[in-house]
Amino acid sequence: MRLLFLNTRIDVSTVNFFDDSTHLRTFDLGDLSALAEKSGFNPAETGVIGNRYIEDDLISFGMRSRDQELAT
């Protein structure tokens, strides 16, 4: 996938869990909520979000400012 971006001149960094050897396990939303509650927090909401209205703008801004994280 990285080559697809690089071939279109979008310089990206990787955000793959398995690229970092210090990552020992993954957590799903239930695991994270339980961990937060065990630590004294009370999550008001959990979930995954995407915003199709600003995704293109973030990618464009990331490319213009050479910000790999935003471009990714």
Can you put this structure into words, describing what you see?
This protein is mainly alpha-helical and 72 residues long. The protein has one domain. 42% of the residues lie in helices and 0% in strands. The chain has four helices and no strands. It has helices at 2-7, 29-38, 55-64, 68-71. The longest helix is centred in the middle third of the chain and has 10 residues, at 29-38. It is extended. The mean pLDDT is 79.
The chain-level structural class is mainly alpha
Shape: extended
Main sheet summary: none
Q: How much beta, percentage-wise?
A: under 5%
CA gyration radius, whole angstroms: 16 Å
SSE series = HHHH
What is the end-to-end distance?
Answer: 11 Å
What is the total domain count?
1
Keywords:
72 residues, mainly alpha
Provide the fold topology:
Blueprint: H1 2-7, H2 29-38, H3 55-64, H4 68-71
Brief description of this entry?
The chain is mainly α and 72 residues long. The chain has one domain.
